[in-house]
Each structure stands twice: as C-alpha cells, then as structure tokens.
Amino acid sequence: MKQPSKSRPWRPLTANCCSTKDQTKIGNFIRCKPTSRSDLSKDVAPMPSFRRLSFSDLSRSSSMRINEDLAQSFGSDLHDFQLSELRAITQNFSSNFLLGEGGFGTVHKGYIDGNFRQGLKAQPVAVKLLDIEGLQGHREWLAEVVFLGQLRHPNLVKLIGYCCEEEERLLVYEFMPRGSLENHLFRRISSLPWATRLKIAIGAAKGLSFLHGAENPVIYRDFKTSNVLLDSDFTAKLSDFGLAKMGPEGSKSHVSTRVMGTYGYAAPEYISTGHLTTKSDVYSFGVVLLELLTGRRAMEKTRPKTEQSLVDWSRPYLSSSRKLRYIMDPRLAGQYSVKGSKEMARLAQQCISLNPKDRPRMATTVETLENLQQYKDMAITCGHWPASAKSRKGASDNKIKIDIRVGATNPRKPSPLVASKKT
Ligand SMILES: Nc1ncnc2c1ncn2[C@@H]1O[C@H](COP(=O)(O)OP(=O)(O)O)[C@@H](O)[C@H]1O
Ligand SMILES: [Mg+2]
Questions:
Q1: Domain spanning 181-393, CATH class
Q2: Less Cβ around it within 10 Å: N or C end of the chain?
Q3: Which segments show compositional bias classed as Basic and acidic residues (predicted)?
C-alpha cells in the first residue's frame, strides 16, 4: 500500500524533563536515565533511554525546559499555547463545550480565529485538559506530543499544539465533527450503515498500518472505538497516543512494558507477559471489527457471564454466515452484505487468534477490507435476515440497555488495565 509522504522523516524523540544529572545528550535531544520512581520501575525490562518517557520532576523549571525542548524540536510544526489562550477559546473549559472524557481528562471544543497565531488558520479545535495526577498523566501528554507531533497521515488526528505551564498539561487537536466511533456505534437508535462501518474500518486500519509500517514502527497500544475519531465524511482518524510505544528494534521480537490498555481490547499474551508487538494492535483491531459487526461493546459487565467478553461470546459464531447472522448488529436490520460480513468475520477471527503469528499484518488487513467494498448483496433481500428478533440468540436486548453517555461512571465502558488509565 502506498503511504502518503511525511512532512519529514519520523524519528524517535523525547523531550527532557528529568534533572540535569539524569540526562545524556543525543544530538538535539536529551535522554532521561531511568528514575527510581516506583511506577517506572515496574517496567518488565529497561527501554532504550531515549524512548523512555520518564519524568521525575514536575516543577516549574521542568515545564520551562520542556517548552524550550519542544519548541526547538518542532519549530513551527506545533504551536506552543498559553493556558490563558486555551481558557479563552473554551470559555474556561465550560461543560457546555465538553466533547468527551477519557481516562486522561476532559476534551473541550474551542475556536481559533484567524488572528490567533501567525500561520494558524481560523478553525474549530479540540482541547484536551490533562487530569494530572502523578507521573502517568504527564507521560501520556508527552507521548502524544512526541508521536502525534511528528507523525502525519490522513488517518491520524492532527495535533496543532500543546500547552505546558507549571502543572498544567493540555493538547490542541483538529476538531473532529462526528466525535468518536464509540458514540455512533453504541447509540440506541441511530445506526451506522454497513458501508460506513466498512469505510471506518478501512480508515482505522490504514492508520494502524501506517504506524506499523513506519521506518521506526510504532505500537499504538490502546486501539478501541473511543480512540477512533470521525471526520464529517466518516473518515476515521486515530487519536489519543498517550500509550503509544516505539516498536522493537533490530532483531528483537517485542518490547517489554508495564501492561496498560483496556480490558476487552488488549491481546491475551500482552496481558500475561507484558510483551508488546505490532500484533497486539492487530488483536485490538479484531475486537473493534467484532464491535462493528455485532454492535456490542468489547466488555459489558452488565451482561450474563458468558456474554460479557465479546471475543469469547462471538468466537463460535464467526466461522459460518449461517451462524454469523445471529450475532449481527440488530440495528443494521439486515441492511448489510452477507458476503462482506462473512469475510469481515473471518478477518476478525484471524486478528483475534491466540497465537500472534497467526494474526495478519495491518497492511494485509487494509487490502482485505478494501475488497469487501465491492459486495452489494444485502441480507434483507436475500433471505439471510431472520424475521424474528427472538431467534437471535443473546442479541435481543442489544437495543434497550446501551448507555451512550461518555464518562467514567458508565458501567458499559471498558475498564482500564491499570488504575491510572483509561476509559
Ligand atoms: N479532536 C477531537 N474532536 C472531537 N472530539 C474529540 C477529539 N478528541 C477527543 N474527542 C472526544 O473526547 C473523548 C476522549 O478523548 P481521548 O483523546 O481519547 O482522551 P483520553 O486520553 O482521556 O482517553 C473521545 O472519545 C472523543 O469523544
Ligand atoms: Mg481515549
């Protein structure tokens, strides 16, 4: 697959905020040596230090140093905003402007006019206000700046700028008018048509494929519906790079990390060993494919035990179109391609293989999904759609129980793998 050209070569970069005695200079960038903070020492094995987003100091001098480093590294590609400016454009982070809420903090809509900054066009933006408790929040903020600040692709949300003032950490992104896939897919009444689901799956797959195919591969680590944002024409863009990680180097097969992510989406071998590979993202992608097919969430604690995990519940239905129709999203009302859904289910099945080696690469996944766009056979017109909802084992209550609210208190929201992260 042809990758769009990048504005400049992608290179691993970190900003500096550890104390001077813990630093090593590498070209323009400064390495942070591992600190003794307990949450960092939980890493399974030390990472090359320039990739380690490890921070021991959130003092005023640190934030000043970070700003200097980021300004030097990114130049005019990223804007360094003042907190007062971001307050002004979001009406002091008013709840009326709230776009969403994740484990990281709240996201508010703002509007930048043409006179805001030189070289910055008038546009609506999304401002993420980091809920900074401990180091994790700061690490996530910095990971987003470092990754999204350098990676540019039509299927990645564009980072416009950041703000680092004393203990405040904010991010400014392009505004995505249709919000997250989560908000559309699990809505009670309105539904995403089959062709739109396919378009979203292809866009998100291209985003992941770009990350995995980069010169220095990046593992996204938190692929899920709330992190897939939608443009006005339903182009999918990945956002929320707070957990992204550089892939293994050289002959290494994996990177070893503290296990973080979201239950229901995280690959089983990653949860049990902490070994992270690009195939961990492929597993999560398979889970989202299942969500697109069934309209069910990856993990739903309010369902009967056997139905709580989407992967476990759906696995026996994925191998034949005869069985598959029983778990297809009732909101589609039979308006989906039988052939397309069958092949998407087969792809999902491969993606959620227990052995990571049996999972396809994301580039292959993109091709497979693009081929499904040719199918126009609708289940409703070829008798594949069961007349009675009662015959749809286990799927009949899908319509009534789903809570579309975005928030940490939603019992249907996926739960974090570690307390500090994420919804
Ligand atoms: N650029 C954006 N445009 C519109 N809505 C957004 C944007 N960024 C985030 N959101 C909304 O805010 C929610 C949380 O954002 P996210 O970046 O995932 O935060 P967290 O890191 O806290 O999980 C998203 O699921 C989405 O609903
Ligand atoms: Mg998120």
A1: mainly alpha
A2: N
A3: 394-404
pLDDT tens per residue across span 256-297: 888 888 999 999 999 999 999 999 999 999 999 999 999 999
CA distances from 289 to 138, 209, 344, 352, 398 (A): 31, 15, 7, 10, 17
**222 an active-site residue?**
yes
Name every residue whose Cβ is closer than 8 Å to that of residue 261 and which is 6 or more positions away in sequence. Answer: 221, 222, 243, 270, 284, 416, 417, 421, 422
Domain extent listing, the chain: 14-174, 181-393
* pLDDT single digits (tens) 186-201: 988 767 999 999 999 9
Q: Is the Cβ–Cβ distance between 378 and 337 less than 8 Å?
A: yes
Catalytic residue among 222, 240, 281, 329: 222
User: Residue ranges for the binding site for ATP?
Assistant: 128
Tell me the two tokens of residue 359: 């999972």
Among all bound ligands, the one having the nearest atom to the CA of 406 is 1
Superfamily of domain 14-174: Phosphorylase Kinase; domain 1 (3.30.200.20)
Q: Among 97-101, 134-138, 350-354, where is mean pLDDT lowest?
A: 134-138
